[in-house]
Fold YoaP-like.
Amino acid sequence: MEVLKLTGRNIQDEHICCAISDKKCKDGYQKKKDWLKTEFENGYTFQKVDVRGKVFIEYVPIESSWLPIVGKNFMIINCFWVSGQFKGHGNGKNLLDQCIRDAEKNGMDGVIAISSDKKRPFMTDPKFLKYQGFEIVDEAPPFFKLWGLKINPKAEFPKIMISAKLGTCPDKKGITAYYSNTCPFTDYYTNQLLRKYAEKKKIPLTINHISSKEIGQKMPIPWIINSVFYKGDLVSLEMKVEKHLEKLIG
């Protein structure tokens, strides 16, 4: 299957894999496209298999990444997803190989990705990363793992910033949510569904929009897509977080 690279010139005519026909996420879909157009100028790459489905990889040089990771000359995978019927056909390996080739072509020392100790929603499957030669090079509570693959064997792996190893957020009252427009789902699920849930439960809600690299790198966890905390503790990285909150709030 053909791999297609999105650019500032073709993005308005191409889908971005997620929320393709999800009308409730229409605004978030356009915000993600607008975000991509800006970040393309900073070396951000979006590659997808040219099908109507979630088969894509996004990556960026560490120097332009919004993630709270310190290092230099590595490529960071921002999002990597192969779904449903497109699994088991080599699509994931082809996309990852494209990322590695781009890193090599640009003289980079390797590739890194934030994942976990096991498969979790919206995270790259750690078993796949390990199978492709990645190793755990750093970690942060409660379950974040920084996976890395060296191109230059003499290079030092980047590290998660100390400030992103807290595992908790500073706001200890009620629900605290962080989200960015790096995903087309976050705007709707955070600003509408989560807000309605908090109002129904009469629980204080603080929503933090990660709108810049500077804000992203101040996160208390190494994750910028979407996260929800309750009384300071991380509840979930999922969009539909209400079921997890119910277990705590009742």
